[in-house]
């Protein structure tokens, strides 16, 4: 029985790593201008093989779809890992990447830059700065007499998140309703349409570094999920690990928000799908979440740009797809444990 379970878990993890590759290849050719999978592969390899391909195929794949596919893969992977890390860190199955107020802080930075007419790079930098600032504010608020507990960190995150959400509402209130407000509202709902190689070069390193940190520390996630008393009995190293995980998750969340706006449900739903398939061992949940999160986001983004003539906001689709699926998943699992 044990060997059967291990074989099943390995199969699931292997499938989780193959799925993003398959979904990316299919979605690169999917849209109002369709490209077959063989032609997609040939076009992707043409810079290496030197094979002549149709100019339209090359332009559509490399200039239009590939940047947003890369962003979707990275954002799906990163948000899923951040959600997995926070759910383990706070021992809360409802924890999300915005638990510490990072997404709200990054959103405020972005809408502030939009208000002043900044470029895409300026918006991205502003979102990253305010997203990271939200973590430091949360940590500062949670410290009492030089110490900070998990409960106080969560409560601090709620306070800071509410503060930045109020500031976002204020920016929307004073924004020009003809030009600035529609841009701000659309950006907050999430979209991959602004993905460029320049924005990826700025934002991807934060996602990659944060994701690698969580993957390397996945062996410790089962330990840090213990309560404060158990963690203290294991010494100060646990506190350092917790801080590293929070910083890594913050980098991921702030970078994702800075490039594609707020995208909900990914960091909540995907870790539960992974746990349903591979069990509660966070070492395996982390690996499974990478592939499932990346695939989920690629598919959702492809539907968003292909379903109707105008592009649908990502947060709308993730909520429509995520909420019913999450309910079914909870009923299959017998409720949140």
Count every beta strand, where a strand is a DSSP E run of 2 or more residues. Answer: 0
Regions with little confidence, pLDDT below 50 for 5+ residues: none
Q: Work out the helicity level.
A: over 70%
What fraction of residues sit in β-strands? under 5%
Which secondary-structure class do the elements indicate?
mainly alpha
Radius of gyration: 20 Å
Q: Gap between N and C termini, in Å?
A: 24 Å
Order of helices and strands: HHHHHHHHHHHHHH
| Biggest pleated sheet | none
Alpha plus pi helix count: 14
Overall spatial form: globular
Average residue-wise pLDDT: 86
General description of the model:
- This protein is mostly helical and 337 residues long.
- The chain is built from 14 helices and no strands.
- It has helices at 2-28, 37-49, 55-89, 102-115, 120-142, 150-174, 180-188, 197-216, 221-224, 228-233, 237-260, 266-278, 282-306, 314-333.
- Helix 1 packs parallel to helix 13, helix 2 (37-49) crosses helix 3 (55-89) and helix 5 (120-142) runs antiparallel to helix 6 (150-174).
- It is globular.
- The two termini are 24 Å apart.
- The mean pLDDT is 86.
